[in-house]
Amino acid sequence: MRHNESEQGRSVRLLKVGEQIRHTLSEVLQRRETNDPDLDAMIISVSEVRVSPDLRHATAFVKSIGGDDEAMLAALKRNVKPLRGQVGRSLTTKYTPELKFLLDESYEEASRIDALLRSPEVARDLDDDEDEEPGHGAA
User: Fold this and answer.
1) Which segments of the protein form a coiled coil according to its record (predicted)?
2) Do 61 and 104 contact (CB within 8 A), yes or no?
């Protein structure tokens, strides 16, 4: 592995640029600086931004907190140009990436895994494992 790449294969520079874009988007949305009443009325979490290797495209993973995800995505798509402009002012890269917004489904996945771990079948299996003494498994 090259020393300028993370374990996931993305370079440190891409990760830094993605994090800088995430911070900028989060601040703009938090401060209600979009001049869109629909968007300004929403609470939006920007969990991650992935940047393409050529720094021309960025995908922001977003989630509406207590709101309608479809309405949030529509509002973000309506405001993509002003948001891109604000991102461009915060970056020191040659290009300002084209922004794309996708719904962050990791929250639902975490909830699904949590529900599975709390299910009676898993709890029963965990209780059975604790009853056995270490090194004396069932034969």
Assistant:
1) none
2) yes
